[in-house]
Amino acid sequence: MAPDVYYSLVVVACGILVSASCSLLGPFLVLRRMSLVGDAISHAILPGIALGFILTHSRQSLAMTLGAAAAGLVTVWLIELLLKSRRVSEDTSVALVFPMLFALGVLLMERFARYVDLDPECVIYGDIEFAPFDQWSLGGLALGPRPLWILAGVTLFNLLLVVLLYKELKLTTFDPALGDALGFHSGWMHYILMTAVALTCVAAFESVGAILVVAFLIVPAATAYLITDRLSRLLAWSVGFGVLAAVGGYGLAREELLDCSVAGGMATMAGLIFAGVWMAAPRQGLLAQLRRRLS
Description:
mainly alpha; 13 helices; 2 strands; 77% helix; globular
């Protein structure tokens, strides 16, 4: 296989996997009106990442992953704590928590710069262009790009989570009180969903960065919501739009067109797809509403 073709396939595959893994969770965040939580978690995992590096001096340590996941859960817990106080609204609680944790992570990395081999900009913007060069070997056996394995595992985990807990997630999303009455424990479902979001952010931060994770968590789901209000179809459309944005965004970022960041191209394409659907959706689109008003 030609090097250029291999490089393109790996980058596009990473984009497809991260878009699919995020798009499986995004509809639940949109329906629960928790879109900003994904943004908060994707930024607030930074102190956990920094602590993992400080403690282990390794970019591939289990401690880094566990620390980032723990930071994501702490973010959710703090947001819930502020909400339960009934003194601040949900958007305010998110806006209070994630800048504080993100800033803490930046301070840790600045204070221990000689120990932490990680650039904060890498976490935000990502380096999906370098995914093909991050090779993974086990016992001398070359297994291919490490980001592909990680993102494939996260995508499979999110798919199994949605399939196995579909009924519980659906009920606790639309009617938490009924879910509690039937023994589905909406609180547990909430934390399971937030744990999956945190793990997805942790798995994707090094390859694609926080911006692309936030874009794929929300934009495909919001786009799909303009077309259907049935959860099963919403999930399918969300994944479809996410994959389309990943593939189209890579083409948009090629040298022949914009010659820009691949992650930026994918996020931009997701926004363009949303704009197109917002204009042309058969029932909720801008043109459809205009036709109804004129008729």
